Amino acid sequence: MKFAVLDFETTGGQPADSIIQVGLVIIENEQIVSRYTSFVHPDVPIPPFIASLTGIDDELVREAPPLEQVVAEMQPYLQDSVLVAHNAGFDFAFLQRALEDCGYFKFNGMVLDTMDLARICFPTLPSLALGNLCESLNIPHDRPHRADSDAEATALLWLKSLSRFQELPLISVQRIASIFRDDPSDFAWFIDQQAALKERSVALDPDSGDYFRQFSLAAKDWGNDLLERDEAETARLLGMPFPEFYEGIKSTLQEKFAVFEERPAQDQMTEEVASAFDDSCHLLVEAGTGTGKSLGYLLPALYYGIREQKKVVVSTHTINLQEQLRSRDLPLLQDIFPVDFRAALLKGRSHYLCLRKYEQKLTYAEYEHGREDRIMAAQMVTWLTESEQGEDEELHFGKNGMEFWRSVSSDADSCLNRSCPWFKKCFYHRARNEAAEADLIITNHSLLFTDIKAEHRILPGFKHLVVDEAHNFEEVAVKHLGTEISWYSYVNAITQLFRDSRSGQLPFIRNRLLHAEDVSRDKAGAWIETIDELQPVLLDIRERWDELSALLYEILSFDGGDSGEGPLTRRIAKSPKPSGWGTLLDLEEELYARMTGSLRAIDKLIAEMKEQEEVLDLQGLVTNIAGSVKELYRHRDAVRFFLKQPDDNYVYWMEGTVQQKVKSLQLTAVPIDVSLLLRDSFFDVKESVILTSATLSVGKTFNYITEQLGLQKAAGESKLRTVLLPSPFRYREQALMVIPRNFPVLKGGKGEAEFTAALTDSLAEVAKAMEGRMLVLFTSYRMLRQVHGELKERLTTEGIQVLGQGIDSTSRSKLVRLFQGNGTSVLLGTSSFWEGVDIPGDALSCLAIVRLPFQPPNHPVVEAKSERIKEAGGNPFMKLSVPQAVIRFKQGFGRLVRTASDKGVVVVYDTRILETYYGKHFLYSLPGPKIEHMYVHQLVPRIHEWMEGEEEA
Q1: Residue 271's domain spans which residues?
Q2: For residue range 688-716, what is the model confidence (pLDDT) as tens digits?
Q3: Which residues are CB-neighbours of 504 under 8 A, at least 6 positions away?
Q4: Does any domain span residue 447?
Q5: Nearest to 788 by CA among 182, 46, 780
Q6: Domain match, 758 and 866 both
Q7: For the chain, how many structural domains are there in total?
Q8: Which residues of 888-918 are buried (b: 16+ CB within 10 A; e: fewer)?
Q9: Are 667 and 582 contained in the same domain?
Q10: How far is the C-alpha of 305 from the C-alpha of 463, rounded, in Å?
Q11: Residue 573 included in any domain
């Protein structure tokens, strides 16, 4: 097969733009046999951004041949070739227009995209950008954004992907081919050709691996690898006091690492954690960035847990930190700890693949999004030959990927447990079994609270807990102990059961019953009749839900906040209720009754079918229907809870957007105060809870977090200890905070135009001075968008890339990769960028904080909590708003200095930090940077001076 690998550089991405360089690489018999490249003289000047990106300017193409000559030279290479490109739609569109403009027939051969094959062959790579793929796969790519280099890299990527595909076990290749069997695309034809090639070379296939039900699996059966420890030897090794044991560990680390750095704060933390475990106390410990918190709690947790034969659970807020503990810290501990131990990582159930549901998806070819779903299904075939955990974090998801994942992820409602043919291979049950056997369990805050709601049926019993990223603990509790229902989730649950007469679980099982031979016609007929009766009822329920949602959205849009593009939010207070609420309650009663009746009918149908499921081979299908029914019961109850508002400790509100209207509707009810629940679930019943973060204190005290988490009782009983540990970083030499004291002020929404204009001007000047390398933190997405366009226009001509959250990508990790990959970038972010973003080194040298991160005072939760504080005679602003904002501000500040060698500048554009009585709380809570205020025009000279190290004596 002959492949022509093509890449164009152009003056832009639109059909009217011009080609400025061509790169073409010809592959035959899996070898590069020839190449063609040429610059092209364009009809228009090359835009500055393109010149900066590609290094191709007007001077370079001045003497280049015209497009007609280049196309004439290219055309013979394309004869009898399969065209290959990376993101082929772009290059193919330009090729067709060029051929047509130059008087040639359009290309009518096969067109393939390296991205499709790379996704299937390398399903765990985090990015499909050509540069990132080349870096991950060790493919040389010397000059990105030059057509000759890009075409060469694409050709090497294609060859590597072809080789990987042929290395897959035959059974996996055949599975992938079967996925594309009914797909009419060029890619499906290609996969069929590759499968035939594999089958012809089957004698060369080592057929290694574990096979089960026509799948090749990396994961073996779980439950067969118990850890046996010598108890006497364990007692000897861990019998010494912890300080003595810890000194031995440090000696091992000194031998292991050529450069070993003493960390007094880490030493103190390990001793405090060990002491809290021994004395059955709770501990609040703030440990600054660089302390080494992970080892600070993991070492004493393992020492205590193994010595006392007590399980210890470590909980993080983010999956990222969970993964960091698994991939970085635990392997180190396995290497240096004197006793063998077992650690397990347990995530929420939806993070694991359900092999039964996935097998059913492939067997019945349930591909709602056509070829996109087929590629997702195919990449998972490859992934199963590599994965031992079966977790979604390992996979790269394309468009609609998360929707596909939800349809095949594990869930309690549709689980067959031991009746499932996949039970001993099941990823979720493997993880639970490992947790049951482990000395140490790594989980996350969300799963802790899910376990509480599930009456402790998920996590094994434990009495010792470490909560990392503890500043988020109360917020996660509020979210997970509440209820949430959206228009989409309700509709999706109904359409799972019945979409139309051909698709949905009920029509699917009806079709099976029509052709069932092992059940009496009477029974099959009765069940089909029940399904036929249910279908119009489900349609009616859907219509009633739409009607109810439309009325709710009407109330929301009438008084839901800003008009225009912004999100709408409306709190529904206990009294007075919005006009027309009585009509809503009547509608809900009808909906509740109709839903209850239909769900009971399905329950009865399921019960009857379960008696015959082995004969009919319907076990999995019936279980899936049972799962959908349980989900609809939950949605039914959530709608009733929201509308009837039975609990005064809850705050109720609606959200939506003007653009999507009813389809964006979301109803939320969460507890206002979770301190009692946290006390009852953790602090009163656990022997020791360690809570740690880089940001727990406000004004050097733990008063705020103690009250929020319900720790007052423990403090009163002397069962709570608090420790404030400094960061080992030299902040006074490493970080300069500058505040432009004459910057425009925003007051109650007034002066926004002046503020935004001044902000854009200043950011542009600072970005030029820093040559990018700048993260800008906003509190308003609207302001981010306003600044993004203008800033991009000003900085692109300087060769500085501007990236905006929600504009250039919605993925935080992707934006951070793009930022780090380009040495001269400015990244604009909102909420999720204030914490958990780790960009060490020179990639980030300047942090700009646009506004102090106060939560909107009219947010329903803030409003409800403020009312409670007022009722108790307190000041909500100083007791709630300021402490929340200070902790968030400290998190934002912490993005700048990530290592002992980092140096940079923080610019704070909010003059309230200087001019208000509460501003000192923000400054006093910081870890000691050099703080200066000055006029705006003095910012850039001072930044230059600081970064060049010219300090006054």
Answers
A1: 239-342+687-725
A2: 999 999 999 998 999 999 999 999 999 99
A3: 495, 496, 497, 498
A4: no
A5: 780
A6: yes
A7: 4
A8: bbbbbbbbbbbeeebbbbbbbbbbbbbeeee
A9: yes
A10: 10
A11: yes
**How buried is 29 (Cβ within 10 angstroms: 0-12 exposed, 13-18 middle, 19+ buried)?**
exposed
| Domain annotation covers residue 367 | no
602 shares its domain with 741: no
157 with 46, same domain: the answer is yes
Mention every residue, 6+ apart, whose C-beta is less than 8 A from residue 384.
172, 215, 216, 217, 218, 219, 390
Token pair for 202: 């089957």
* Nearest in space to 440 (alpha carbons), one of 311, 270, 278, 304: 311
Beta pairing partners, 391: 352
Which H/E stretch holds residue 313? Answer: strand 312-316
Quickly list DSSP for 339-406: S---EEE---GGGBB-HHHHHHHHHTT--TTTHHHHHHHHHHHHHHTT-SS-BGGGSPP-TTHHHHHH
CA angle 258, 259, 263 (to 5 degrees): 140
Question: In the chain, how many H helices and how many E strands?
Answer: 40, 25
Q: What is the 3-state secondary structure (H, E, C) of 512-577?
A: HHHCCCCCCHHHHHHHHHHHHHHHHHHHHHHHHHHHHHHHHHHHHHHCCCCCCCCEEEEECCCCCC
Query: Are residues 721 and 735 both part of a single domain?
Result: no
Contact 25, 152 (CB under 8 A): yes
* Mean pLDDT confidence for 28-45: 94
What tens digit of pLDDT does each residue of 628-650 get?
Answer: 999 999 999 999 999 999 999 99
Integer Cα distance of 446 and 691 in angstroms = 16
Residue 372 CA to residue 483 CA, distance in Å, equals 32
CA angle 459, 464, 465 (to 5 degrees): 70
Q: How far apart are CA 115 and CA 371, in angstroms?
A: 13
Instruction: Please report which helix (H) or strand (E) contains residue 665, including its range.
Output: strand 661-671
Token pair for 209: 């691996």
- For residue 264, whether the previous peptide bond is cis, meaning omega lies within 30 degrees of 0, is no
Is residue 441 in a domain? no
CATH of the domain at 257: 3.40.50
In 10 A of CB 243, how many CB atoms? 12
CA–CA distance, 446 with 466 (Å, rounded to integer): 14
Write down the pTM of the prediction: 0.90
Strands (E), 741-862: 774-777, 801-804, 825-829, 846-849
pLDDT digits (tens, 9 = 90+) for 361-420: 998 888 888 889 999 999 999 999 999 999 998 998 877 788 899 999 999 988 989 989
Alpha carbon distance 464, 280 (integer Å): 9
Q: Are 436 and 461 in contact (CB under 8 A)?
A: no
Residue type for 566, please? G
pLDDT band of 952, cuts 50, 70, 90: very low
Looking at residue 888, which CATH number applies to its domain? 3.40.50.300
784 and 706 in one domain? no
H/E element holding 215? strand 215-217
